[in-house]
Inverse folding.
């Protein structure tokens, strides 16, 4: 389990307003910092991953950290795919509008062609 704490320092720099630690925190253990709660959690998870603390065996704590890392990675991928989907939707809408304009031009051209043919 990860615990977070909001403790803004009396300085303009907001990068250390949030702190994140594991539930079994002891002095010297990794501490995550961030301007937001999520940034602090991500910083802590990165440190835990880098420190190879996940190789400590099949402990409940290690499993929990692994799941949190997996969840974070999946959330990042979901957000990337959502942005990509939104970009593609915008492109499709623009193409649909262009097709509709061309269809209108074709309809007008067909009317003019029939009018010229019957004259």
């Amino acid at each position: 389990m990860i615990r977070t704490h909001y403790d803004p320092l009396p300085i303009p720099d907001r990068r250390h307003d949030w702190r994140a630690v594991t539930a079994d925190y002891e002095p010297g253990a990794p501490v995550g910092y961030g301007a937001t709660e999520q940034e602090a959690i991500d910083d802590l998870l990165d440190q835990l991953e880098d420190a190879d603390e996940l190789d400590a065996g099949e402990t409940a704590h290690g499993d929990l950290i692994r799941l949190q890392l997996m969840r974070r990675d999946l959330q990042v991928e979901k957000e990337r795919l959502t942005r990509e989907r939104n970009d593609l939707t915008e492109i499709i809408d623009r193409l649909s509008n262009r097709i509709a304009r061309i269809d209108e031009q074709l309809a007008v051209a067909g009317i003019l062609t029939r009018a010229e043919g019957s004259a």
Helices lie at 37-50, 60-118. The mean pLDDT is 86. DSSP finds two helices and three strands in the chain.
